[in-house]
Design brief:
Length: 389
């Protein structure tokens, strides 16, 4: 079996809002075709137009070969070897950032294709030891442009997540810092107030997490707010500091009891080794597409085991990314949760319509899929409907 074509589709929601932090409003879906008629699908969570250009760019010399050129004619079952080939052959322009995200989309598609060819779900090919089930948390990004609107929306989404059967939820409270919603710049004390209201709505049994999207420039400022949040029993606080402030993460982790989570923007096992060993974080959050695909995400999870750290994959895109996270979690003993954007709570029609079949919640958990590959079915009509090329 040989790879015959690489196809990339950029999607854009017609109602996208550039003032909110939802990358689910656009997507790039890749398909890897073979001469056997088997097709694998994947995606990544970064700028979709730039990713498409990177995958299909021309090759001009042997230190920067296009990913499309590298894969055409190759055996798609050689997943790890193809990852290494893509990484080494594009290292001059792609060893981090966009290049690794592009490799991630293709690697996910290769694993989907391999599973379909061998008649096995991806999780069975990743490990001989498996978790019996996967527990997702509902990732809740509120709507609104004022503090009051954001607070009300988030409370309503917490209640709806409970109704949908989620036992855990993450509060996206982006009201200050560089990536705030609609340009809000509120006091840190307002974060505490919103968490308190959401805890009251959720009740004491529901697990709550918090994402503040890099709100603080120094660890001592972050520490003040994290100490104020301690009474609400948060499972973790995500990305309080900038990604590269490893010393700041270490100081914060060493001075606070709440778990710190980070890593959604990092690429390859090498950056995660630094985050874990130098940054002292408790929970590493590789995004499967951004970190370099399933191949590299599994390496990150395996490394975290050796350092006694948890992995909770980041995922904010579509059911394709969720499927990849489910398979990683099933094959990794140190994954207590995965991030899950419920289609019922997403404003993006791409999230709601991209797949014909996807994983569903049953009593708060996802059972391991038995279908080959990722175990999902693409809605071809959505590719045409939301075409954003």
């Amino acid at each position: 079996m040989k790879i015959t074509k690489i196809e990339s589709s950029v999607l854009l929601a017609p109602n996208y809002d550039s003032e909110i932090a939802s990358s689910a409003q656009e997507d790039i879906v890749v398909k890897i075709h073979t001469d056997a008629g088997i097709v694998g699908i994947g995606e990544t969570d970064t700028n979709s137009w730039a990713t498409k250009a990177y995958i299909h760019s021309p090759s001009t010399h042997n230190m920067s070969i296009s990913l499309e050129h590298l894969l055409l004619g190759e055996d798609p079952l050689e997943t790890e070897a193809l990852w290494e080939k893509m990484y080494v052959s594009t290292a001059m322009t792609g060893r981090r950032g966009l290049g690794i995200c592009a490799i991630g989309a293709l690697d996910i598609a290769l694993w989907d294709l391999k599973g379909k060819a061998l008649g096995k779900p991806v999780w069975k090919m990743l490990s001989d030891i498996h978790q019996p089930e996967v527990r997702p948390y509902a990732s809740l990004l509120p709507t609104g442009r004022t503090l009051e609107e954001v607070t009300s929306s988030l409370i309503q989404k917490v209640l709806r997540a409970k109704d949908l059967g989620f036992s855990a939820a993450k509060l996206e409270i982006l009201i200050n810092g560089p990536y705030s919603q609609a340009g809000l710049q509120e006091k840190d004390s307002e974060i505490v107030k919103i968490v308190e209201k959401c805890r009251d709505a959720a009740g004491s049994e529901m697990v709550l997490m918090l994402d503040v999207a890099y709100s603080w420039n120094d660890w001592k400022t972050a520490l003040h707010t994290l100490e104020a949040l301690a009474p609400f029993g948060l499972y973790f606080v995500e990305t309080p500091l900038r990604s590269d402030d490893l010393d700041g993460y270490a100081s914060l982790a060493d001075n606070v009891s709440t778990r710190l989570a980070a890593g959604e923007w990092l690429q390859t096992r090498y950056e995660f080794q630094d985050l874990i060993d130098r940054g002292h974080i408790d929970i590493a959050q590789p995004d499967i597409g951004r970190v370099g695909g399933i191949t590299e995400a599994k390496r990150v999870a395996d490394y975290a085991v050796t350092r006694n750290r948890l992995i909770i994959p980041h995922c904010w895109k579509s059911g394709i990314g969720i499927a990849a996270a489910v398979h990683l979690a099933a094959a990794s003993p140190n994954v207590p949760y995965i991030e899950f954007l419920p289609s019922e709570l997403s404003e993006s029609p791409i999230r709601r319509e991209l797949l014909r079949t996807e994983f569903k919640l049953n009593r708060g958990i996802i059972t391991l899929p038995s279908e080959p590959g990722l175990g999902i079915e693409l809605n071809e009509g959505a590719l045409e409907k939301y075409k954003g090329d």
